């Protein structure tokens, strides 16, 4: 049994125009210790998928399908059961370390809170454990940090604190939603190395959400490429990065800046924009932006083609992308 | 925002310092009155009535020959007591209702907020008169009446501030750490809105003192022989031309208390929210 198995997950947001699909038919599974990357541009449903896994969808959003964590369907669980799992078995790191810590509490208490809540530790033991966790995330002078407030820390340090909070109860799954987007590049590399090492060390499964292909390529075993709420390509990282079976995946790679390109030449951009969720066309959602589009793409839902071992793409033209 | 920084910013506020000094005077008068007053505030001495200020009676005597200075001192107790209890009723009940509204949302929020609107629809002093008219005059009933009208003020402010905090990222992060609604409300929302509540409590304290003086002036608040600033004003109006100072003293006492608390609240607000101070 997979540690986490997501089956046809969908998220709809009700609106006066009818329910808006934000995530559609997303299926994947993660084994213990496995790392999964989810890539796609802004608004493709990456964050909604992550929030659905945690049971933290915004008010009004309606999930459907199944999210099975060790066989238990999380979507059917009451809130108090989810509270027991969150922060304990499932943990999440957010994009903005600047605003994800409570400004009025010292960080020591914020780390210790999870331990007191889930592990039933006493205050002094929890504080000692907080020091150990700060050491684990390689925070300089961990003891002295306990009494500091979030505003006294740098962005990278705050993200380290967030990771320490997430790891406090040794979760089985760590969901990292763009954990390095708000940090500058050198700090980014340090934080990613840290996450990568910790995942190896503690044997957690990792779901890494990012729009940065380089990051995802570096540290994940498998990748999902999402577009307009759907998984358009899924497979093991190395073959998927080599093969790039879906035209959208190709477009993402094409849009990476190349240091060797001629100065002054324009960066490639995928033409057009992501369709509004309520206007997603009947056929392939990418049809309007696709260089390989043919009439059938606009009318029929594209087939889920197996293009390699455990590697699938949602496209009728994969024969053209070899 | 560290604690030291906050205290330093408070001390730099001119409003805060003036407010602190004026409030301090009133508070000191109340404390002093428990240990010492120049004369008994209730001892009647008819032959010595309406005496002008002198070395013996610093503020003179009223129409019963009671010492005005002693009455002002003891009256401050009354004003401060009513203020503290009435604001506490408002803060405790109002904050609880406001937090409940923002944590529960839906019909609970609607119900609480419509009730607050309903209470706001009547002028506070009129409703306080209504309540004391039904329950009968007296210090306790006037405290109750003033306290009840503090509840919707705090319920509204709490809900508004709490909703703004609930939309912040660290609330989502706290939920991701497995905290339930009640924990998040108490540990994350309440400490983040406490500055707004402190400022509002200071200002409502001033309003409560004013309301108590108003009710006592109308004869619905503190009953004789307990001295009260509002009733001293009432009793002095008959003698306004013979002894105008009888009205000036309690009036000035009310003004000092209300002005001091308002300045204190203003200064606190500026110190707690530096952005607001700079934009002025």
Please characterize this protein's 3D structure:
The complex is a heterodimer of chains A (322) and B (280). Chain A is of the alpha/beta class. Chain A has an eight-stranded mixed sheet with strand order 6-7-8-3-9-10-12-11, sandwiched between helices. Chain A has a four-stranded antiparallel sheet with strand order 2-1-4-5, with helices on one face. In chain A, strand 4 and strand 5 form a beta hairpin. In chain A, helix 3 crosses helix 4, helix 4 packs across helix 6 and helix 6 packs parallel to helix 7. Chain A is globular, with a radius of gyration of 21 Å. Chain B has one domain: MetI-like fold, CATH 1.10.3720.10. Helices cover 74% and strands 0% of the residues of chain B. Chain B is elongated, with a radius of gyration of 22 Å. The chains are: A alpha/beta (322), B mainly alpha (280). The interface between A and B is medium-sized, with 31 and 20 residues.
Brief characterization of the structure:
In chain A, 33% of the residues lie in helices and 23% in strands. By secondary structure, chain A is an alpha/beta fold.
Provide key terms for this protein.
heterodimer, A: 322 residues, alpha/beta, 8-stranded mixed sheet, 4-stranded antiparallel sheet, 33% helix, globular, B: 280 residues, mainly alpha, MetI-like fold, 12 helices, 0% strand, elongated
Gyration radius over CA of chain B:
22 Å
Oligomer: heterodimer
Mass-distribution shape of chain A: globular
Q: Extract low-pLDDT stretches of chain A.
A: none
What is the helix fraction of residues of chain B, given as a range?
Answer: over 70%
Number of domains of chain A: 1
Q: N- to C-terminal separation of chain A?
A: 34 Å
Secondary structure blueprint with pairings:
The complex is a heterodimer of chains A (322) and B (280).
Chain A: E1 4-13, E2 20-30, E3 35-39, H1 46-54, E4 62-69, E5 72-73, H2 79-85, E6 90-93, H3 107-119, H4 123-136, H5 142-145, H6 155-167, E7 173-177, H7 185-202, E8 205-210, H8 213-219, E9 222-227, E10 230-236, H9 237-243, H10 247-254, H11 295-299, E11 304-308, E12 311-314
Chain B: H1 3-12, H2 14-35, H3 68-104, H4 106-120, H5 124-135, H6 139-148, H7 151-166, H8 169-176, H9 181-217, H10 229-236, H11 245-272, H12 274-278
